[in-house]
Design goal:
By secondary structure, this protein is an alpha/beta fold. It is built from 24 helices and 21 strands. β6 and β7 form a beta hairpin. Bound molecules: adenosine-5'-triphosphate (ATP) and magnesium ion (MG).
Amino acid sequence: MTKDHKNLKNIEPVRVSPEELNRRRETNKVWFSSIVSLLEKFISKIKKKDFFISFIDSDRVVLKTISPSGGEGVFTEGVVINEEFFGTTSIECSLTRNEEVEVIGSDHTLLQLKDWACASSPIHDSEGNIYGVISFTSKLNNYPDYGLGIISSLSQAIEKEVRWREISEYFKLSKKYLDIISKGTKDGIICLDEEAKILYMNEAAGEILHVDIKNSLGKFIVDIVDFNPVILSVFKTHEGYTDQEFIINSPLWGTLHFIKSAVVVRDEKGNFAGVVDFFRKIGRVRKFVTSYIGAQAKFNFSDIIGTSLKLKEAIRISKIASKSNSNVLILGETGTGKEMFAQAIHYEGLRKNGPFMVINCGAIPRELAESEFFGYEPGSFTGADKRGRPGKFELANRGTIFLDEIGEFPLGLQVKLLRVLQERSITRIGGTRAIAIDIRIIAASNRDLSKEIDNENFRKDLYHRLNVIQINLPPLKDRTEDIPILVNYFVEKLSVKLQKNIKKVDDSFIKPLTTYHFPGNVRELENIIERALNICENNELNISHLPREIIKNNPSLKSIDEIKRESLIQVLQDTKWNILKTAKILGISRPTVYHHINKWHIQKKS
Ligand SMILES: Nc1ncnc2c1ncn2[C@@H]1O[C@H](COP(=O)(O)OP(=O)(O)OP(=O)(O)O)[C@@H](O)[C@H]1O
Ligand SMILES: [Mg+2]
């Protein structure tokens, strides 16, 4: 025994409790548990029995020792291999130096270890931090030359295993997200390898393309669909694209129409490695567009006010129309409610969840009309979007198209419109294929269409096509009994909007309205009431709040001067004799106000 060899025969090394040991095994299981079971199997087959393999955590606690003999050797489980007790060990050196270390026989400082040899290697996580140490121990006389070699390859194997597990965990998680994304979207997604074989396809893709996903994986895309897949172009160009429109004719499934994006996949060296193909059915695109641009009806029949026989008859026919799919022609002067009726027919019909697309036939410049109505194919004319665009008829699919001012529909396009109505399909400008559309047509006009036909501005055959159900909206002057009802309705409706509190609508306000001829019909009446509410400064509407042309036009019993005098008195009272305000409200100058006060002997009441 040399002097510097400690003999601690009667002193016990530090040891953690069994619970603590279990806790430590649990926290370190990432790196040590998998290899332990493998090693146990391996060791059981080895003839040589006198060596030990130990796993020690970074706090120097022995987590596990395994041996073919079943014994534990010197580094027993739960013991803390600290320097104070064990002195120099390969475990201690390996941990502090962060490298593989071998300590043989008398290089140990503890007497009991003098006839032992031990090799240790640190185990690292993917960031280089030390998880712990693995060590190989045997009696000196049995210690093989390859002790350090064994431990070195074992530590590398453990690190690889841990890394592999981390990666596979990561992939499992990524796959989970990928599954959620690809299942959650209604867009089709197909991943293709560099030869255009299918690596992955989501359910939506299978549905859109009418193919069975399971039978498609690993096959060439050309072999699973019955048309020439447009994605193949990307395999030639190696260039992707975003949101391009494609219309494909499938012999089996008819027209497939979608918006597509293709993303090229490249390997680390930048070589083409495949394509991810995203595609969305055009129906979904249209639905989005129409909800986005607000092509939705907002009126229904209960919003149409009036009890006159003529109006009731118009409502009766419109309700019948709403239950059918036939073309409707609404005729009526401006402001009689043509658009309102068209909306109600749509809103209360079978297509209420589809778009309500308004086309004002007179408002679109002739040269743009065709592309606006019917769309165009890619690159069909200069100035057109390279990618092509759908027209309003296509966007109205499954809904109603309201052709307002049909009398102004360009003569040159009327044949095309007629064909659309007959065939229920459109052909875009520059295209040859017909795109099927399911639309309901409601046309409206405030012109006498028969005159337009006589003047050869409107095709007779088109007129007959549109005129399946005709609805005639009476002018307001022909249903004067509706005027008081409409007045009250608008006063109520607009008071809310203008934040007025009208308690009374005087007869002197309503009477002149019932005899007025209303060239602008209900819209004009609505405007008159909005104006009156704006100028009314108290809570009663009376003659003073009506525009002059209505009072002027009113062949009532009173003379015009009488009416003027009364309205001046009223306005003066309303404004508490504020001459400036009175002049403003009546639209006359201040001197004129004074002139009339004198002329008609109007006196301020005290
Ligand atoms: N019967 C009615 N009840 C309630 N409001 C009505 C009625 N008729 C028309 N209106 C109102 O009048 C306004 C004008 O109606 P609409 O736009 O439908 O008329 P139009 O016949 O299409 O007119 P134009 O020929 O000028 O386009 C509507 O905004 C609505 O508020
Ligand atoms: Mg209109």
